[in-house]
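Hey, resending since the last one bounced:
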Amino acid sequence: VIAFGDQRFTDPANVTATNPRVRKWLVDQIAKEKPGAVTMNGDVPLSGDVVNDYEVFRRETKPWRDEHLNVFPALGNHEFHGDHAQALEHWWTAFPQLRNRRWYSVHLGSRLYLIQLDSDAPLVPASPQMRWLDEQIKNVPHSVDFVMISLHHPPVADVQKRINVDHNPRPNEISLRDYLTATAKTTQARFLVSAGHIHNYERHLY
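The structure tokens again:
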């Protein structure tokens, strides 16, 4: 499984908000790896209200379709640029199999369970998404060794005090972190969480 975040597909002429050369290289490398699944943890388009951004996504990820890769996207904040309802409609048009779903789960074989969350929707206790997630976790089959959770905003990060402080973990995702910390003690399967948003690869012990 390859996790890929913050792609921000857009007009390749835009070389300031994204790097189209590296973006295309990453897509091609993922296709060469032939993974069982690709999870995208949000910000698939640069701007969700621009239909052409999704067309660029479709055009540039043709190698994935040629390899028949299973692609599972999650919603990020860029998907909601502009009018939220219209932007969400663009998302569902790009991913028709997800229509009317902002969060969902997928079995990847018998040992891995993938959960895609929407961190633009509440993840606090008693919210619809958290009630759904709790039911998913409680009913994970005993054969599952790993539950992989993908979302956009990070529940854990190297908290910044001066630069990009608005990208630090928010109360919404901290609530998810606390839930997973408590639930992991009573759940047979291990949790793996993939998030994006901060545009940085971080490796540290919390």
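The chain has a mean pLDDT of 94.

Sorry for the duplicate.
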